[in-house]
Specification:
Radius of gyration: 19 Å
Largest sheet: 6 strands, mixed
CATH class of the largest domain: Alpha Beta
CATH architecture of the largest domain: Alpha-Beta Complex
Distance between the termini: 36 Å
Structural class: alpha/beta
Strand content: 5-15%
CATH topology of the largest domain: 2-enoyl-CoA Hydratase, Chain A, domain 1
Shape: globular
Order of helices and strands: EEHEHHEEHEEHHEHEHHHH
Length: 264
């Protein structure tokens, strides 16, 4: 059985992390499958929105800590080499998610712990069920964060709150996560699948190329100077203006009707 299930429907690619018996802990196989699938989706113009979720009752309960049990028996030199490689194995996933020219939604129920938090933060939007909970938890096993959470978390919640979350490793609710700006939406547990589909369908019907440009603009703004950011705004706007969806959007506005975007 694959550690990642992929389903394509109506312009939406749904990626299901499929290790429910381990709360979808991130195995080496899952890492490889995620990296490959994300690369394929990036190049697939028929996909206009991506949903990432976990099988069963949880989103993802972090890395495969049980699998680390054998690793800690090695020499410090061997441990260092192994974990440098392990962490770098995550990076193609994070780069692909950041680069993805279409929206990515994390749909969370149950636990999002450790790398599960990192993975949710790397998505563009996060919707969670009321009973979902979050914990960065790396400090609980005696290590610092990975999976790009040290980049995304301070930018989402501020440095002081990020320090609190990382240094204490406490568990907090979906509503608390929404209140501090870590996630976007909280819905009743029984409606999570339905509300995720509604959100994904809305995005899949939107101006996909525009979403890609918007993602690129917003993410580069985290490190850009003011002048270079404004120049990028001009270039991306002009790029959008040359495309079919801009013509459709302007025409629909003038004709006072709903625009019908093709993503081009």
């Amino acid at each position: 059985m694959a550690d990642l299930e992929v389903n394509y429907k109506d312009g939406i690619a749904t990626l299901t992390m499929n290790r429910p018996e381990a709360r979808n802990a991130l195995s080496m196989q899952m890492r490889s499958e995620l990296a490959d699938v994300l690369h394929d989706i990036e190049q697939d113009s028929s996909v206009r929105c991506v949903v990432l979720k976990g099988a069963g009752d949880h989103f993802m309960a972090g890395g495969d800590v049980k699998g680390m049990g054998e690793s800690i028996k090695k020499t410090p030199e061997e441990i260092r080499k192994e974990f440098i490689l392990r962490i770098h194995d995550l990076h193609p996933i994070m780069f692909a998610m950041r680069r993805m020219p279409k929206p990515i939604i994390a749909s969370c129920r149950g636990a999002a712990a450790g790398a599960g938090v990192s993975m949710a933060l790397a998505c563009d939007l996060v919707i969670a069920s009321e009973e979902a909970f979050f914990t960065l938890a790396y400090c609980k096993i005696g290590t610092s964060p990975d999976g790009s959470s040290s980049f995304h978390l301070p930018r989402a919640v501020g440095i002081k709150k990020a320090m609190e979350i990382a240094l204490l490793g406490d568990r907090f609710s979906a509503q608390e996560a929404k209140d501090i700006g870590m996630i976007n939406f909280v819905v009743p547990s029984e409606l999570l699948a339905e509300e995720t589909t509604i959100l994904a369908t809305r995005l899949a019907a939107g101006p996909t190329h525009v979403y890609g440009n918007t993602k690129a603009l917003f993410y580069r703004s985290l490190e850009s100077e003011f002048e270079s950011q404004l120049q990028a705004e001009a270039e991306y706007f002009a790029d959008c203006a040359c495309r079919a969806d801009f013509k459709e959007g302007v025409t629909a506005f003038i004709e006072k009707r709903q625009a019908s975007f093709t993503g081009t």
